Amino acid sequence: MVGWKKQVRDRLIYVFYFVALLFLVLCYRLVDIQIFQHDLYKAKAEDQHKGTVTIPALRGSIMDRKYVVLANSLALTSITADPTMVKDRHKTAVLLSQILGESEEVLESKLSAATRFVWIARKLDDEKVEKIMKLELPGIYTMKETTGKRFYPKGELASHILGCTGIDDQGLDGIEAVMDNYLKGKPGEMTAEMDIRGRLIPGGASSIIAASSGYNVVLTIDESIQYIVETALEKAVKAYGADTGSVLVMDAKTGEILALANKPDYKSKDPKSPDYMQLTRNSIVTDAYEPGSTFKVVLAAAALDSGKVGMNDQIQCGDTIQAGGWTLHNANDGFGGNATETITDIIAFSFNTGSVAMGLRMGSKIFYDYIVKFGFGDITGIELPGETEGILPPLKDWSEINLATISFGQGIAVTPLQIVSAVQGSINNGEQMQPRIIRQILDSEGNIVKDFRPEVKSRPISKETSYKINMILRNVVENGTGKKARIPGYLVGGKSGTANVVENGMYAKGKYIASFVGFAPAEDPKFVMLVKIKNPKGTIWGGTVSGPIFSEIGREILWRLGIPPSFPNEINQMGADPSKNN
Amino acid sequence: MKLIEILKDRNNINKKPLFRPAAYRPEKVTKISTEAVILTSFTILLVTLMSICYVGICAQNVKSQYTLSRLKEKKIALEKTRLNLKLEVSRLNSLERIETIARRELGMAHPPNRLIIDMRNPSVLRASIEDVVAIESYDEELTSD
User: Tens digits of per-residue pLDDT, A543-566?
Assistant: First the structure.
């Protein structure tokens, strides 16, 4: 009896120890899992029930100076496919083709790819996405893109300024490229607990890295003025059968660009056409040309400011002049060998010989220094891509003939922006403003992040000289070669220019650039404008071709800006019919 | 051997009863006060109510979370609509579009003449007012026709 009891007790003790050991092992395992390997198992668990969703960040808008939207992005969805899951490739391709408008062959080849992921269509509008998803095609999926799709609600307007973006909404050209760091948003990420279908579990643990939308960029251009400029320029290029045309309008006091246009526009052209790449160039800043007589504004400013020429000085202005062993002529001869003129008339009638005489009187060093002071030979620093500095021969290479030809705008290459900036400096009390096209940067809530204020870039000439230049240029329009640039009711100043087109390092025969640079109203200039027409047919002169375009655009701009005319009766008598001008 | 005998033997050996029969035990009288009953009942009731409330709040919370989730989705959709509409407004306000409609559909054209009224010059002002009056009378004639 006692032995049996002992046996039972011993067994019970063994069982107890065994169970206790088992319990200890379990305790150890529990501690090991819960404490020592906590992070590992936590991560494994989270992997199973947590998912990551990318929060799209939209690119900022581009607006004009009155906050009119010129470019904007929208978040859209793309269609993707897993070719291995597609059951009937041909049928799927046919159905998709009906909605997407893409050829069945292309879609079928995409669906036949030896991969598990192909793009069917990127960034589709919601309506099409909905139609495709209703078809419930196996292997066809939607994907929310982290970036939006760019839209330009004004069509081709200001296309050379705005530029373009790529499929991933990245800036490729124009303001889109230059301001890409400000415009592009930063996509966010949300990690949260999800159910088996990938839906968020409300109340589940989640962590969010917020998406930050891109900043909005406010330009200095005015949509209305830009439209006036583009409409008039397009009409003029067609009317003159010209190769290209460019117009730049700058605020005369601040240096802000009010409008900038090049025609023909590339956006309406076929990207495969041979001249497409050339048309994408914003020739206002990227292409240098010989300015011709418009450069005489710089010559006159330098001659007067240096004191080498006075307003009443009589300067040799015959039919020809000798310089560096060469005989130089006026555009039209017939003034006689010993004629003399004042600086006012030399500029008004654009005498090359008189200009050469002024240049020779100043000398290379003085003239060169003024050219540099006006910013030629260097980029202006405007916020547009591909700006060139033009061609200014170094002073050591200047011979007498260089000095003579540069005096009437040959042997030097400038950009339209440089010449407009120089004229702005000449008529704005000698204060040349930094050319700008960006006005403000705003955050997505509309708060100002950065405000660009007008700043004086240089003071190349004195206030007195500036006043004299203003008077000289008024005379060009009142009595000289710029008569066709007159705007009824307003005082206008300006200078015409006709230059040869340079092709492959040579002057192209019979090809000219007709330009006119001017400002209005002359008493208190509001804008400076350059009109440049390349290779017009019929007539070639800057005053005749570009002058009327300046007048037409200038009149509309003044009306749009609400500038009252100095001579209202002139408008009442002449009306607004350009044919009645002059 | 009967169990009672065995017990007797054991009693004899140890001189100590192995256990005391119930008849010898002192009677235990458990007296539960009314207050304790009320307190216990109240506690049970309170715990029950709190549990029900907690479950209700949790359910409400989950419901709110679902509502919040739906509203968030709605907000995103509305924001997208707002951006779409903003773009549409900008497109509809395009000057090119307005001019095309004005010219082609409405047959409008730029005015051939513009009349400037110089407010600083009384004589011109008088003449201008006469012009305006003349234009207005002409308009009235047209309307009356």
Answer: 999 999 999 999 999 989 989 888
Summarised one tens digit per residue, pLDDT across range A193-231 is 777 666 667 666 677 787 888 999 999 999 999 999 999
Going along chain A from its start, the domains and CATH numbers come out as 76-99+112-144 (3.30.70), 223-272+281-580 (3.40.710.10)
How close is the nearest chain A Cα to the Cα of B133, in Å?
16
Domain of B100 in residue numbering reads as 75-111
Would the pLDDT of B134 be above 80? Answer: no
Tell me the C-alpha distance between A294 and A315, whole Å. Answer: 19
Confirm whether B86 is domain-assigned. yes
A103 is catalytic: no
Q: Cβ B65–A72 below 8 Å, yes or no?
A: no
pLDDT digits (tens, 9 = 90+) for A295-341: 999 999 999 999 999 999 999 888 888 888 888 888 776 655 578 89
**B62 vs A contacts (CB less than 8 Å):** 202-203
Residue A151 burial class via C-beta count within 10 angstroms: exposed 0-12, middle 13-18, buried 19 and up: middle
Residues of B in Cβ contact (< 8 Å) with A155: 94, 96
In the stretch 14-43 of chain B, residues with CB closer than 8 A to chain A read none
Q: Which residue has tokens 């040959």?
A: A410
Q: By CA distance, what is A153's nearest residue in B?
A: B91
Give the angle A196-A199-A204 at the CA atoms, nearest 5°.
Answer: 95
Contact A300, A472 (CB under 8 A): yes
Q: Is B91 on the interface with A (CB under 8 A)?
A: yes
What total number of domains does chain B contain?
Answer: 1
**Among A386, A380, A420, which Cα is nearest to A283's?**
A386
The DSSP secondary structure of B30-85, one letter per residue, reads: ----HHHHHHHHHHHHHHHHHHHHHHHHHHHHHHHHHHHHHHHHHHHHHHHHHHHH
Burial tier of A517 (Cβ tally within 10 Å: 0-12, 13-18, 19+): buried
Residues B94, A153: contact at Cβ < 8 Å?
yes
Residues of B in contact with A151 (CB under 8 A): 87
Residue B66 lies in a domain: no
In chain A, pLDDT over 90 holds for what percent of residues? Answer: 57
Q: What is the ipTM of this complex?
A: 0.73
Whether residue B106 is contained in a domain is answered as: yes
Tell me whether residue B134 is in a domain.
no
Q: Is A180 helix (H, G, I), strand (E, B) or coil?
A: helix
Q: Which of A61, A78, A283, A293 is catalytic?
A: A293
Q: Which of B81, B82, B99, B113 to mutate to test the interface with A (most CBs of A within 10 A)?
A: B113
Which residues does chain A have within 8 Å of residue B90's beta carbon, measured at their own beta carbons? 68-70, 72, 153-154
Inter-residue contact A122 to A167 (CB < 8 Å): yes
DSSP A436-491: B-EEEEE-TTS-EEEE----EEE--S-HHHHHHHHHHHHHHHHHSTTGGG--TTS-
Q: Do B116 and A575 touch (CB under 8 A)?
A: no
Computed from CA positions of residues A341, A344, A347, A349, in that sequence, does the dihedral angle turn out positive or negative?
A: negative
Nearest CA in chain B to A151: B87
